[in-house]
């Protein structure tokens, strides 16, 4: 049975040589007969980006799923998206005004962003972010009548610096055209602001243009959409939001805020040591992963953790873990001061090494092709890393969200200064701290 929609407006128009009623239902469905013969429809919320008028012509700008045999378009599910224009000629001035007012009113009711601050990282992945913005993102934003301020990042932590002082009252969101690294910088910058609690309510969006793209892959995959710039941009345009957990990682007075993952062992070795093959683009990860898997390393150490639901029996119960946790000391007086969570009465578990890899995840996908943690989450972690089992004079690398936290003895570029020492590191997750644009 054909679904019935209560009408908000209905007026006569000419379209493709035929006369038809153009109707907008109260639930935002535009319907008409194309050429007087074929019924068409569009979801304003899911597909319509915006519209313009010239004389009595109304041009609807939409982003629809590519499908030659579809009479009613739809952008949910898998499939590429195509920008389309649908032109209608109003019969009278009154019908023109009525249609435009109703369509614009419905779009305004959706709470979509009107102005965005956009970071573009021209150095990430295959260095294609600028091209992706120009070819894929900019046309969609223009079709949606969204204004933006564009900032290309020029050096590491540039996005963090800008986010610390950005006048957020001018914008409805911050977008990162990059891999996951710029998102992490932005979150860390917002958390250092005096108005951090307000700043974290500004929604953040990610457009895939880097090597990993784990965050946006996780968001789009949750609604069975492919990880493409068009799908990610449409998610921003639609303006839906969700909360994002943030993990505080600390050692003494040194802190780092993570939104994706922490890795030690195999995964961090691949992530950091493959930098020498960055000229290969994203292929460097697969290439170096094979190289490392063929010659696996093992590391001594231990990990204490508070498991998420469904994983309470992993490891051995160890109530003494929390006694070894050092207090979080924030060196600055302003900004986020860390999670306020009572850890003493939680279900602490412990696993002793040796380990091939420890990979802690906040989202299901570590990269576009790696679903490492579809369900598991932890609330708190104490990681005590040790040396390699085959050579006590060589240690490992700990990284979080692509940032090297600690380099042990004998590791790749171990002469470089890192944020923390290769020693005990503590992690606590603060649920729902930040805000993301999301497909639903």
TrEMBL record:
Keywords assigned: ATP-binding, Kinase, Membrane, Nucleotide-binding, Transferase
EC primary class: transferase
Taxonomy, superkingdom: Eukaryota
InterPro entries with a match to the protein in the record: ATP-NAD_kinase_N, Diacylglycerol_kinase_cat_dom, Lipid_Phosphate_FormReg, NAD/diacylglycerol_kinase_sf
Topological relation to the membrane, as annotated: Peripheral membrane protein
Residues annotated as domain DAGKc: 111-253
Protein name per its UniProtKB record: sphingosine kinase
Organism of this sequence: Lactuca sativa
Upper taxonomic lineage: Eukaryota, Viridiplantae, Streptophyta, Embryophyta, Tracheophyta
């Amino acid at each position: 049975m054909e679904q019935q929609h209560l009408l908000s407006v209905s007026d006569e128009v000419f379209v493709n040589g035929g006369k038809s009623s153009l109707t907008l239902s109260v639930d935002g469905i535009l319907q008409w007969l194309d050429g007087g013969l074929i019924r068409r429809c569009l979801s304003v919320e899911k597909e319509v980006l915006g519209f313009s008028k010239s004389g009595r012509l109304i041009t609807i700008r939409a982003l629809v799923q590519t499908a030659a045999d579809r009479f009613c378009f739809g952008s949910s599910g898998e499939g590429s998206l195509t920008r389309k224009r649908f032109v209608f000629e109003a019969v009278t001035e009154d019908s023109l005004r009525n249609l435009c007012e109703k369509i614009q009113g419905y779009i305004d009711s959706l709470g979509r962003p009107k102005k965005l601050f956009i970071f573009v990282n021209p150095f990430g992945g295959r260095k294609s972010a600028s091209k992706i913005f120009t070819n894929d993102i900019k046309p969609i934003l223009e079709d949606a009548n969204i204004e933006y301020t564009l900032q290309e990042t020029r050096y590491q932590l540039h996005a963090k610096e800008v986010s610390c002082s950005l006048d957020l009252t001018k914008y409805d969101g911050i977008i990162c055209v990059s891999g996951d690294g710029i998102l992490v910088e932005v979150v860390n910058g917002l958390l250092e602001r005096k108005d951090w609690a307000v700043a974290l309510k500004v929604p953040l969006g990610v457009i895939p243009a880097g090597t990993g793209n784990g965050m946006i892959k996780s968001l789009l995959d949750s609604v069975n959409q492919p990880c493409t710039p068009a799908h990610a941009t449409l998610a921003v345009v639609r303006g839906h939001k969700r909360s994002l957990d943030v993990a505080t990682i600390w050692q003494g007075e040194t802190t780092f805020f993570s939104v994706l993952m922490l890795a030690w062992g195999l995964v961090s070795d691949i992530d950091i040591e493959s930098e020498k093959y960055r000229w290969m683009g994203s292929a460097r990860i697969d290439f170096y992963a094979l190289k490392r898997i063929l010659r696996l390393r093992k590391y001594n150490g231990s990990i204490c953790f508070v498991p998420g639901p469904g994983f309470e029996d992993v490891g051995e119960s160890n109530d003494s873990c929390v006694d070894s946790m050092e207090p979080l000391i924030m060196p600055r007086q302003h900004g986020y001061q860390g999670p306020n969570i009572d850890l003493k009465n939680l279900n602490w578990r412990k696993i002793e090494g040796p380990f091939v890899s420890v990979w802690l995840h906040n989202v299901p996908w570590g990269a576009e092709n790696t679903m490492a943690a579809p369900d598991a989450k932890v609330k708190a972690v104490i990681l005590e890393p040790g040396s390699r089992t085959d050579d006590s004079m060589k240690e490992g690398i700990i990284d979080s969200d692509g940032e090297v936290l600690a380099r042990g003895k004998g590791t790749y570029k171990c002469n470089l200064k890192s944020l923390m020492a290769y020693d005990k590191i503590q992690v606590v997750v603060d649920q729902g701290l930040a805000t993301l644009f999301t497909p639903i």
